[in-house]
Write a structure and sequence with these properties.
about 190 residues, alpha/beta, Rossmann fold, 7 helices, about 40% helix, binds glycinamide ribonucleotide
Length: about 190
């Protein structure tokens, strides 16, 4: 049995798709969801979906080994950042080499880096008059949005698309691609 731990900071709509995708799979389990936001909507989703969810604070994440020890104790095979907005500490990356992946709502290297998340990305895409955007699923390293690319997918934009329409198109791409990419990574890792 392969075990996934999801990290999410917000709504958690990707987390929900991933949980549902693996629900009937006897070889993969989403063992829990970790969040850095006490009020995150992902917590309601976890309750409804009956997946354990745990809140942690900045101190636990950056100045202790609590999270690393927890992830090891869970026998975590893959850590998936699904709308998680804090930088991953070097100690966590070193403890799980090539086992932490992130989804970013643009075609990296465009629109990546600190401060580029969620609606900020879609607004910048709109402001620059892009005719396409997309998603990037990538390994996590110590710099925001710079780890090796695993998978990208594109969507076309209309001149009338505003940030909300762009966000919706990007979310649909995410739902269609992210669970599949996770499944094939778990297979490839044996
Ligand atoms: C997703 O679009 C994800 O790509 C983005 O946050 C959204 C979370 O939505 N992540 C980033 O911007 C990371 N830099 P969700 O909480 O509904 O899954």
């Amino acid at each position: 049995m392969k075990k996934i731990v999801l990290f999410a900071s917000g709504s958690g709509s990707n987390a929900e798709r991933i949980i549902n995708y693996f629900k009937e799979d006897p070889t993969v389990a989403v063992s829990c969801v970790l969040t850095n936001k006490k009020e995150a909507k992902v917590l309601e989703r976890c309750k409804r979906l009956k997946v354990p969810a745990i809140y942690f604070n900045r101190e636990a994440f950056y100045t202790s080994d609590t999270i690393i020890n927890f992830l090891k104790a869970q026998d975590t095979d893959l850590i998936v950042l699904a709308g998680f907005l804090w930088k991953i500490p070097a100690t966590l990356i070193a403890a799980f080499p090539n086992k932490i992946i992130n989804i970013h709502p643009s075609l990296l290297p465009k629109y990546g880096g600190k401060g580029m998340y969620g609606s900020h990305v879609h607004q910048a895409v709109k402001d620059n008059g892009e005719t396409e955007t997309g998603i990037t699923i990538h390994y996590v390293n110590e710099n925001y949005d710079e780890g090796g690319v695993i998978h990208q997918a594109k969507t076309q934009l209309e001149p009338t698309d505003g940030p909300l329409e762009i966000a919706e198109k990007v979310h649909q791409l995410e739902y269609g691609h992210f669970p599949n990419v996770i499944a094939s990574l778990l297979k490839d890792h044996g």
